[in-house]
């Protein structure tokens, strides 16, 4: 049994989604552009806010891994757009593209057999790539679930979508 291969496959699976949570592509598929800035009652953030927050957090984790000079945004204000900020279609598409590209970069890092998943990061010896991948996958799955539920509450799934109930 090759434990290294098994660990990498499981980390890939966590990043991909599709086991115990939806995949990124499923959650954003056919998202109605006219509702990227809409807000559900009692929710201060729009679908774009959730997605942009996910993008920023994932990018921060990726840069923390690969760039010893990276400076994280201020928390919490640097990790999401202001509640009154809105996106246009180009910004939505850019957020989707950037999130997908950074997710792919994390997946490539995990897939690379030269990546030592368990070595301390030289610039942050209390952290490992393994830990950071788990944090990214956990954060993504949490917010993908929120975004999927937000679509449900706001009735934004396409007609006939398998996630619709009732």
Q: Describe it for me?
A:
The protein is mainly α and about 170 residues long. Helix content is about 50%, strand content about 5%. The protein contains five helices and two strands. A two-stranded antiparallel sheet has the order 1-2.
Strand content: under 5%
Cα gyration radius (Å): 17 Å
Broad structural category: mainly alpha
Distance N to C terminus = 45 Å
Keywords:
166 residues; mainly alpha; two-stranded antiparallel ribbon; 2 strands; globular
Question: What's this entry about, in short?
Answer:
This protein is mainly alpha-helical. Helix content is 52%, strand content 4%.
SSE topology sketch:
Elements: H1 3-16, H2 24-28, H3 47-66, H4 89-111, E1 120-121, E2 124-128, H5 129-153
Antiparallel strand pairs: 1-2
């Amino acid at each position: 049994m090759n434990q290294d291969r098994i660990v990498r496959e499981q980390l890939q699976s966590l990043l991909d989604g599709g086991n115990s949570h939806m995949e990124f592509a499923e959650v954003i598929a056919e998202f109605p552009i006219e509702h990227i800035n809409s807000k559900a009652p009692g929710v201060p953030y729009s679908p774009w806010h959730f997605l942009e927050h996910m993008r920023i957090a994932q990018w921060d984790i990726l840069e923390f891994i690969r760039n010893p000079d990276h400076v994280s945004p201020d928390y919490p204000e640097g990790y999401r757009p202001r509640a009154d900020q809105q996106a246009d279609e180009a910004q939505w598409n850019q957020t989707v593209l950037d999130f997908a590209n950074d997710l792919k970069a994390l997946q490539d890092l995990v897939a690379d057999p030269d990546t030592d998943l368990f070595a301390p990061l030289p610039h942050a010896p209390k952290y490992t790539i393994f830990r950071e991948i788990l944090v990214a996958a956990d954060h993504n799955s949490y917010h993908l679930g929120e975004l999927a539920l937000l679509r449900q509450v706001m009735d934004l799934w396409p007609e006939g979508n398998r996630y619709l109930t009732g």
